[in-house]
Amino acid sequence: MDDVSSRSIEGENPRYLPQAKIYAGSAAVSSGIAPFWEIEDATALKIALEVRRDGAVAYDATTTTASFHRPPQGLVDHLWHSQPFPDGAVLSTGTGTGIVPGLDFTLRGGDVVEITVDGVGKLSNPVRGEQAELDWLVEAIDHPLTRRAHRTGASRGR
To answer: What one-character DSSP code corresponds to residue 102?
Structure first.
């Protein structure tokens, strides 16, 4: 999952972190989700982040799940402790130590963000620069076929 925070909101006050994560386009989930029980050793997965800008690497960093404050199994146990998820759930762990860019770096429209988790997969997302580019998603909230047509480039008839 690519979980993006708005630095302009978060930078005003750390207490604004929840608001910095709830804007259109702030999270992307891969279509290739790996169930926890299929991951051989979730305690030592390498996570790599690369941001490409104008074809060149603008930022890259790596971390591992071993750097997390709580081990992955503990997070899964806590998630399932009080709530059943008969169809499964996506557990977003937040950002690992050492992978977040410094405050002098910010994403720009046209950047490509690529996150790779060894043994799990790769997620690549283009950064959109304007809210208007996501307006179709709000308009199509009750129309799944419209969303599919947008992704495939087909006509967006309802």
So the answer is: P
Q: How many domains does the chain have?
A: 2
Q: Are residues 39 and 81 in the same domain?
A: yes
Q: Is 2 contained in some domain?
A: no
Q: How confident is the model at residue 144 (pLDDT cuts 50, 70, 90)?
A: low
149 is written with which tokens? 């047509």
Tell whether pTM > 0.85: no
With residue 61 as reference, give the H or E element that holds it: strand 56-64
Q: Is residue 9 part of a domain?
A: no
Contacts 24+ apart (CB under 8 A), 82-91: 88/35, 90/1, 90/29, 90/33, 91/36
7 by Cβ neighbours in 10 Å (0-12 / 13-18 / 19+) ranks as: middle
Residue 26 included in any domain? no
User: Are 73 and 145 in the same domain?
Assistant: no
Q: pLDDT digit string (tens) for 24-75?
A: 667 777 777 788 888 888 888 899 999 999 999 999 999 988 888 888 888 8
Domain that holds residue 143: 130-158
Cα angle, residue 32 at apex, residues 31 and 37 outer, rounded to 5°: 135
Which residue bears the tokens 């690992």? Answer: 96
